[in-house]
Design a protein that fits this description.
The chain has 1242 residues and is mainly beta. The chain folds into 14 domains: 9-61, no CATH class; 71-155, Immunoglobulins (Immunoglobulin-like, Sandwich); 159-227, Immunoglobulin-like (Sandwich); 234-304, Immunoglobulin-like (Sandwich), CATH 2.60.40.1080; 311-381, Immunoglobulins (Immunoglobulin-like, Sandwich), CATH 2.60.40.10; 389-535, Immunoglobulin-like, CATH 2.60.40.1080; 542-613, Immunoglobulin-like (Sandwich); 620-670 and 681-688, no CATH class; and more. The longest helix is centred in the first third of the chain and has 4 residues, at 118-121.
């Protein structure tokens, strides 16, 4: 057959010998010589000839070409970056049977491919959409076809949303990211840039966070989100310091930015202010706490200063002279807040910093700064002592000018100057050569202060009289003045004469009234001198009582009187004859009477005045009373009469009546205050009495056995007799005793002779034998306990009593004891046989029933059990005693496993016992952990196997940080994994395991570049990390498997390094081609002149491998980098580096054009003249040009002048120094020849 599975084989039988063939019989039923459509297998045939002779044979149909479809691929992939590589596993390309096999592919997304090459057999394909695709491979060779179908999956790439929650406050780390996976294949793993692995992020700081989400198919996506933080709260504090040093009117104003408004404020000042501005602040440091709308807080602190203390110094100048007001005081403030204002307390209230024209004394200045702060300073203006002049003189003699006058100075400020009023105007302290007479000296001190004094110079022949002493009259009109005359000079003894009346002749005149007096003295020589004196007296002292007030009421002492004083000599003293004596100008508290005041001045002069203080007449109030007629009556009255005082009067009674008379009074004392028009008052009272009240007493005789045999007797006292009686019994009896009364209450009315009534009642009681009562002393103490007790008694009746209870014991005492719960009756009988019965009920508490609900221990070893006890019945309150432990609470907690018994006792002492058993799990919750570490660094191939025992199954698991909830976890990255194990009772246990990974394979590559396109480069790799030894595979051709690959051309090379456990790391390095570098050729300088060979060129190499060799193609075949001495032309140069790389270049040397010089001459004008000239025209070379003429002197311009006839040469040189020479001929005309003939003059 042509191919496996085909049925197109043929078989033909060939015969020889025998007779002609009659038929063919094949094992497949064929009957022809050749059969077709055969599948692989063995076929037999029987051939029969016409003679019936047979022969058999067989043939085997085999496979032709074996066509086989089959492929593998590189695994299901994620959409992003997918490339599916299909590897042919069936018939290989080029294995040709009938034909060469054709590979046809249908990739399931509408894309097909067909071909016969290796690439066609091993295609790769990229899918544009995720999904499940059916990939079909058809391998055909002619009619032979084989097909393979494979389902592949293109996983969707995960898509995510990231919702950030920004920080609430600057500087906090309370941001969050909510990550939601929209598409992908769960479960997912998360790898954040902050190394967290949970899906969502909590408690993170501001910043940008990257996350890679990997689904269970290994597909990844990445996202980036930024967590913002609000602007930090920025507090700007602006202080306003207190206005004055030590003041508390400072403030701090805050300005807030950042955060989230509105803000709240809290200052740490004593008032804990909450406004933006804190006011009323003293010197100090203050903190403001600002909280924004998010609750974010920040604070700032500022120190509040204070103005400098306002201080001042003060200086001044004293008064220049005693008694002169020219002192000054100057305040010099500092600190505080300028400018300053000033307020002096001098008489002018000056307001400058300097106060002037000050007299002696102490002055205060108040200095106030611009903030209103002030300070007060004092300054004392002193004055020099007064200039006190003491005169002295010596008399002149015999009228000659030989007298002297001197002055002695005390006080003032030396030095002093003097000026006498004598004719010579002498200037010394003593004036000399003076005649007798009076002189005045003016003394001036250094301050210009002046004092004068008169001085008498006597003649020694005559006495001088002076009044040496005098005293004025003490009081106006007194004659107690005196004066003394004292003689000087003259010749004693002296006689004296005063012009008094009568004349007094002593040196001292006494008893002088006010007036002017002259005394004359005569010495023994009869010389006379006199002196005068005036005796004064004070103004007459006059005391006058100018104002007085009489007492307001009779007997009151509230009068006053005031004395006014004039004249005399202040101070005055006062003396009133009041009691006690008063010593002020106004006497107060005066009663009516006659008063005298004596005023004494400072010289004991006296003046008096008198006044009479009167009082109004006394108010007299008289009351006549009328008593009440009966006890408790209100027919009393009071009649008031008033005299004295000043009408009209007002009245106020103690019962608040305001009329003069009052009536309808009950018994009692009534007082009235009578007030006159002056407000003076008096009080009078009256007592309204009653007659003795009727007092009744009652006595009764009770009735017996419901008979009307009782009686009641009333006894009356008080009130005026005789009495009458009226009972309210059915017979209206009128005697003191009512008889025949049945049980009941009866009233009797008793009247006295005034008709006053009194009532009393009497109660007649029937004595039936009494009433029985019983009380329960105590009920039974407990359920079914017979310890009840009850007691019976009788009210009324006649003792003694007998008792009979109907309890089972038929007790006969008042108290029945030991009785059970139930109702019991007792019959009580008095001594008269009167009986009464009463019943009581004895109760019992309900039976005490205990119910205990236990709370078993959930976790082994915990003591968290509890017993909840409920008690009903008995009599509360209960007491409890638990054992073991001795606890006395009703319910007990924190119990370990065990049996607990409680004894409950009620308030009657009845006890009941019960118990409860608290259980716990059989064993503690424990776990063991084994782990598998990561095989390759960066992989997630770790695993943890957890085994849990104990506790109470089933268990739940919560791993962190990956939140897995299975017992065992796989596909783990390196890290520490902790599991919280919880059993069905909520008991927990924790375990952890750290999955480690080998060090990452780290590759360091090196290279050696190739040269000039040759395969002589080299790459190398050094590996570290990983596990075990490394194997290497370079992508060279052929593949090299050592750490160093050699003989490589330029290109990129990748090495794949595999460690001992199959972990793979790749690295790529680049081998460059060192092409010999780059060459540039520069012309250093062209030929300087036409035809000169002084050009120069240099080849410059960048790169390549030194050293280099050079070769120029100039005639000299120079071998240096720089070729010199070059003529104009083009030159090639080659450079070969150390590794044989060849570089070439070319340089062109230029030359200037040849210098062409044309010289033109202008001949001289006259023979023998020198006014010729020559000029040049130059081209070529390199301008500018210079010139040199062979003239004398040499001319150097392009035009030579002043030339005489002759040949001239000019040398022209260009800027390169190239020159050329030109000649010119300057001609001159022939000389003029003048011929003269002889001329004869006639």
């Amino acid at each position: 057959v042509s191919c496996s599975g085909a049925c197109n084989g043929t078989a033909t039988v060939s015969t020889s010998g025998g007779a002609p063939i009659a038929n063919y019989n094949w094992s497949n039923g064929g009957t022809t010589q050749t059969i077709s459509g055969l599948c692989v297998g063995t076929y037999s045939v029987t051939v029969t000839d016409i003679n019936g002779c047979q022969d058999t044979g067989s043939v085997t149909i085999n496979f032709g070409t074996d066509i086989k479809a089959g492929f593998s691929y590189n695994g299901d992939q994620c959409l992003n970056g997918n490339t599916f590589v299909f590897t042919n596993l069936g018939t290989t390309p080029g294995f040709c049977g009938l034909n060469c096999p054709t590979f046809s592919w249908d990739f399931g997304d509408g894309t097909t491919l067909s071909g016969t090459t290796i690439a066609d057999a091993n295609p790769s394909h990229t899918y544009g959409l995720e999904g499940t695709y059916t990939v079909t491979q058809i391998v055909s060779d002619g009619p032979c076809i084989d097909t393979m179908v494979q389902i592949i999956i293109v996983y969707p790439d995960p898509t995510i949303t990231l919702i950030p929650t920004d920080l609430s406050c600057s500087g906090l780390c309370d941001g969050a990211i909510d990550l939601t996976v929209l598409t992908g294949t769960p479960p997912y793993t998360y790898n954040w840039s902050n190394f967290e692995t949970a899906q969502d992020q909590q408690g993170i700081c501001a910043g940008t966070y990257d996350v890679t989400v990997t689904d269970s198919a290994g597909c990844t996506t990445t996202g980036t989100v930024t967590i913002n933080e609000p602007a930090a709260i920025i507090i700007t504090l602006t202080p306003s310091i207190p206005s004055c040093f030590g003041g508390c009117d400072g403030s701090i104003t805050s300005s807030i930015s950042g955060g989230n408004a509105p803000y709240t404020y809290l200052w740490n000042d004593p008032g804990a202010q909450t406004n933006t501005t804190a006011s009323g602040l003293c010197l100090g440091t203050f903190m403001l706490l600002v909280t924004d709308a998010n609750g974010c807080s920040d604070s700032d602190t500022i120190s509040l200063g204070t103005p400098p203390l306002l201080t001042s110094s003060i200086s001044g100048t004293d008064a220049s002279c005693n008694g002169v007001c020219d002192g000054t005081a100057t305040a010099s403030p500092s600190g505080g807040t300028p400018p300053y204002s000033y307020n002096w307390n001098d008489p002018l209230f000056q307001t400058d910093s300097t106060a002037t024209a000050l007299c002696v004394g102490t002055y205060n200045v108040t200095i106030t700064d611009a903030a209103g702060c002030d300070t007060i300073l004092s300054y004392t203006i002193d004055e020099p002592p007064a200039i006190v002049l003491t005169p002295s003189s010596t008399p002149s003699t015999c009228g000659n000018p030989d007298g002297t006058a001197c002055v002695t100075i005390v006080g003032g400020t030396p030095p002093f100057s003097y000026l006498w009023d004598d004719p010579s105007a002498q200037t010394n302290n003593c004036a000399t050569a003076l005649l007798a007479g009076g002189y005045t000296v003016i003394v001036t001190d250094s301050n210009g202060c002046i004092a004068t004094i008169p001085i008498s110079v006597n003649d020694q022949g005559a006495p001088v009289a002076t009044i040496s002493d005098s005293s004025d009259a003490t009081c106006n009109g007194d004659s107690d003045g005196s004066a003394t005359i004292s003689p000087s000079s003259g010749t004693p003894p002296y006689t004296f004469s005063w012009n008094t009346s009568p004349v007094q002749t002593d040196s001292i005149a006494t008893g002088l009234p006010a007036g002017s007096y002259t005394a004359t003295l005569t010495d023994s020589n009869g010389c006379v001198a006199s002196a005068s004196v005036t005796i004064s007296e004070p103004v007459l002292l006059i005391a006058s009582i100018t104002n007085s007030t009489n007492p307001s009421c009779n007997g009151a002492c509230d009068g006053n009187a005031t004395v006014s004083v004039s004249g005399g000599t202040v101070q005055y003293t006062y003396s009133w004859n009041s009691s006690p004596a008063q010593t002020t100008a106004t006497a107060t508290g005066l009663c009516a009477g006659f008063y005298t005041v004596t005023v004494t001045d400072s010289f004991a002069c006296i003046s008096t005045d008198t006044i009479t203080i009167a009082e109004p007449s006394q108010i007299v109030a008289t009351i006549v009373g009328t008593d009440v007629s009966c006890n408790l009556g209100s027919d009393g009255a009071a009649d008031l009469s008033v005299s004295g005082g000043l009408a009209p009067y007002t009245y106020l009674w103690s019962n608040s009546s305001t009329t003069e008379d009052i009536a309808n009074l009950t018994i009692g004392t009534y007082s009235v205050t009578v007030t006159d028009a002056n407000g003076c008052d008096t009080i009078a009272s009256i007592t309204i009495t009653k007659p003795f009240s009727i007092t009744l007493t009652i006595s009764v005789v009770n009735s017996n056995c419901s008979q009307a045999d009782g009686s009641a007797t009333v006894s009356a006292t008080g009130g005026p007799g005789p009495y009458t009686y009226l009972w309210d019994d059915p017979g209206a009896q009128t005697n003191t005793t009512a008889v025949g009364l049945a049980a009941g209450t009866y009233n009797v009315i008793v009247s006295d002779s005034n008709g006053c009534l009194e009532t009393i009642s009497a109660t007649i009681v029937d004595l039936p034998g009494g009433f029985a009562t019983a009380i329960v002393d105590n009920n039974t103490s407990g359920f079914n306990i017979c310890d009840g007790q009850a007691t019976a008694s009788m009210i009324g009746g006649t003792a003694p009593y007998t008792y009979l209870w109907n309890d089972p014991a038929a007790q006969t005492t008042a108290t029945a004891t030991g009785i059970c719960a139930g109702t019991y009756c007792v019959t009580v009988t008095d001594t008269n046989g009167c009986a009464d019965s009463v019943c009581i009920t004895i109760t019992q508490p309900a039976n005490i029933v205990l119910t205990i609900i236990g709370t078993n221990i959930l976790c082994y070893g915990d003591c968290m059990g509890a017993a909840d006890l409920t008690v009903i019945g008995g009599v509360q309150p209960y007491t409890y005693l638990w054992n073991p432990g001795g606890l006395t609470a009703e319910d007990i907690v924190n119990l370990c496993a065990g049996t607990y018994t409680v004894i409950v006792t009620d308030s009657n002492g009845v006890s009941v016992t019960d118990s409860i058993t608290i259980t716990e799990p059989a064993s503690p919750l424990t776990s063991t952990v084994t782990g598998t570490d990561v095989l390759c660094n960066g992989d997630s191939t770790g695993a943890i196997d957890l085994t849990v025992t104990g506790g109470t199954p089933p268990y739940t698991y919560l791993w962190s940080p990956n939140s897995e909830t299975t017992e065992d976890i796989t596909n783990l990255s390196p890290g520490t994994y902790s599991v919280n194990i919880t059993d069905s009772n909520g008991c927990t246990s924790t375990a952890s395991y750290t999955v480690i990974e080998p060090q990452p394979i780290s590759l360091t590559t090196g290279f050696m570049d190739a040269n000039c396109g040759q395969p002589d480069g080299q790459v190398s790799v050094i590996g570290s990390g990983g596990t075990g030894s490394f194997t290497y595979s370079w992508n060279t051709s052929p593949i090299q498997t050592t750490s160093v690959a050699t003989g490589v051309p330029a290109g990129n090379y990748t090495v794949t390094v595999t460690d001992g456990v199959g972990c793979i790391m790749s690295a790529t390095t680049n081998v460059n081609d060192l092409g010999g570098g780059n060459a540039t050729v520069t012309t250093d300088n062209d030929a300087s002149c036409f035809g000169i060979c002084d050009g120069q060129a240099t080849i410059n190499i960048v790169g390549g491998s030194a050293p280099f060799t050079y070769l120029w193609d100039d005639p000299g075949m120079q071998t240096n980098a720089t070729a010199t001495g070059l003529c104009a032309g083009t030159y090639n140069v080659s450079a070969t580096d150390a590794v044989g790389c060849l570089l070439t270049g070319m340089a062109t040397i230029n030359e200037p054009a040849a210098i062409t010089l044309t010289v033109t001459g202008m001949d001289v004008t006259c023979n023998g003249g020198c006014d010729g000239s020559a000029s040049t025209s130059v081209s070529g070379g390199t301008s500018p040009y210079t010139y040199a003429w062979n003239t004398s002197p040499i001319q150097v311009t392009d035009i030579a002048t002043g030339l005489c006839a002759g040949t001239y040469t000019v040398t022209t040189t260009d800027s390169n120094g190239c020159d050329t020479v030109g000649n010119v001929l300057i001609n001159e005309p022939l000389a003029i020849i003048v011929s003269t003939n002889s001329v004869t003059s006639h």
